[in-house]
Amino acid sequence: MEKKNIDWSNLGFGYIKTDKRYVSYYKDGAWDEGALIDDPMITMSECAGVLQYAQTCFEGLKAYTTADGHIVVFRPDLNAERLENSAKRLEMPVFPKDRFIDAVVKTVKANDAYVPPYGTGATLYLRPYMFGKNEVIGVKPADEYEFRLFTTPVGPYFKGGAKPLTIKISDFDRAAPHGTGNVKAGLNYAMSLHAIVTAHNEGYDENMYLDPASRTKVEETGGANFLFITKDNKVVTPKSDSILPSITRRSLMYVAKEYLGLETEEREVYLSELDDFAECGLCGTAAVISPVGKIVDHGREICLPSGMNEMGPVTKKLYDTLTGIQMGKVEAPEGWIKVIE
Ligand SMILES: *Cc1c(COP(=O)(O)O)cnc(C)c1O
User: Fold this and answer.
1) Which of 36, 51, 203, 288 is surrounded by the most beta carbons within 10 Å?
2) How far apart (Å, rounded) are the C-alpha atoms in residues 79 and 76?
3) Per-block average pLDDT, block size 10, for the chain (341 residues)?
4) Is the pTM of this model over 0.90?
5) Given ligand 1 and candidates 196, 225, 254, 283, which is best to mutate, with the most ligand atoms within 8 Å of its CB?
């Protein structure tokens, strides 16, 4: 396979059409057998359920080339399970896990010329998603659904080093208690747009959302979970039913405990504790960990001791170990790396 002529190291995070996408259609209570197709366009009724009542959920994962030249994906079984939970919460039919993995493998293989070479820092981003497609005007779940998986090559997240972020405590809420915060639904992102545009206009990189019920506890940002490092090197992540269970965060907590021998805690994290942490990072597929240098609570600045120039030392170790596992330079736990070809 000959790679596409793309300047991999200078790619941004945007949509670039690739050759094939996987589509399966659900009708009369069953998914069809699915197929790889060429057409990137979707035609549907003006009254489609997704357009009227936002019945859609999605996933995000990456395919990349390891040091020894294999194309792999990271823990796609967890994406399949999470999509299943999202679908159930939104009254959508489940797209079976084995079909999900099969769609990932087929779509990556069909677009292997777009999987960036090892060492470029770039990856092939995979976007599986589902939506209600038939006409829905009275509020109810759709009867017909489309599952689709497309790919797009994306550039290295940190060009020229990971610069610590400045984030604000948001006055907006992300997810209600007992709401949809723990599933990957498009609606959670629609309502976060005003908050992130507001934060950017004020000069912040991200929002820190609090628990809406008491506004005393840390939840997450619009698209990444928090990790904190205490001054005695414990790794702490907030616990809440309305946090989206990040696969990166779960993997990092495992790495902290099993690879680095650090103590880990998933527990409620109070706003009032933020002054005591040594390091803070945001975890998600895109960046693995983005370091946070400063948290601003209505004018009061909380400056992490790790500073505004580089990742803190523990965050860096976590980052290096997990990316080492992903790239095949550090031995991976059983089942974490799915080899495509
Ligand atoms: C997708 C997402 C994350 C990150 O999850 P990963 O599986 O690590 O990519 C975190 N928070 C929210 C709200 C998300 O939608």
Assistant:
1) 288
2) 5
3) 92 95 98 98 98 98 96 98 98 98 98 96 96 98 98 86 93 96 97 97 97 97 97 98 98 98 98 97 94 96 96 97 96 97 87
4) yes
5) 225
